Amino acid sequence: MHLSLRREIMTRETESCGLGNVAAILFGNSVIIVAVVLLLAGNILADDNGMPVDTSQYVKRQMLPDFTAAPCPDNPRGLTQISGNLYRHTTGPGLAVHSGLVLITQEGAVVIDPAMTCTSTWLRDEIKNRFNVPVKYVIYTHAHADHISGSQIFKEDGATVVAHKNAIEPIVGEKLPVPVPDRIFDKDMTITLGGETVTLHYVAASHSNSMIMISFPKYKALQCTDVCESHSMPYNDFLDFYYDGWIETLNWVLEQDVAVIDVGHYTPANKEDERALRDYMVDLHQQVLDLIRQGQSWDQLYRNVKFSDETKKWIGYEQMRILNILGMYRWVSNHRRGEW
Predict the structure, then answer these.
(1) What pLDDT score was predicted for residue 45?
(2) What span, in angstroms and rounded, lies between the C-alpha atoms of 297 and 306?
(3) Which numeric CATH code is attached to 46-270?
(4) In the chain, where are the structural domains located?
(5) What is d(CA 26, CA 161) in angstroms, rounded to the nearest whole number?
(6) For 112-128, what is each residue's pLDDT tens digit?
(7) How many CB atoms lie within 10 A of CB 299?
(8) I want to staple 200 with a disulfide (CB 3.0 to 4.6 A). Which of 12, 100, 189, 211 is the partner?
């Protein structure tokens, strides 16, 4: 074969091999790109815009004994469907029942306020057995132990704990035996999981200064624990109480497009229930203020507060009415100056 012809053939073979290598490299890169895209897509399925907390600084903090940890095999519990993928868990008997909404998605579950350690293991297992998904998020409505106990059961299995930024101080300061939040926020936060969306919003200090509202827009459902009521009296003397913010929060609730409101106790409510509650609290505040301005002492005042016939039908009326007056009396007394 002529020398120049052989060189041309060898050159073509070399170029052919080079093109093959380039193709292989490009194919390999494409596989990597696809893998990265799929990984990112998987992460998008579980995402939030909360702020991370360095929880390592709290590892050795002091904690009180868990008053909900003792075995409670006879304690009532349940997980019932509200609509679609939205459920409501309950724990406790009668008027002592605590509750929170639960969102089930193909990528995992979101649980609000487990409430008791002795039933949290059951709730975790119930979600796993019925839906074959883990709990990915636990949300604290506020930093009160009667609602957020049991969260460590889910945290130990890898769940992310979420709360308002103001929840950290009372959890640590009061030595509550619950996990410090992993993610916090100031005004708003959004969680996306398995194609579902959960929105968290801080309105104002109300029942504690860490209280948040949690919305499930797809289901027109809202978690409004303790601030909202369901044909029931506010608890005790209002406990950890901020009157102005409580009314502001109820006004915010009334502006929302929601049909179901879980109040953390009793049975779910609706906006008309919250309108009645707001009107009751505004009226109670005004009555107490007027009576104080008339110079009435506590012993006179509590006997002269009037309740509507409708309020007298609410759950806990006989047990809570004087305590409600007392709580409002304390608030009004501490938030007025008079003439001196």
Answers:
(1) 57
(2) 16
(3) 3.60.15.10
(4) 46-270
(5) 42
(6) 999 999 999 999 999 99
(7) 7
(8) 189
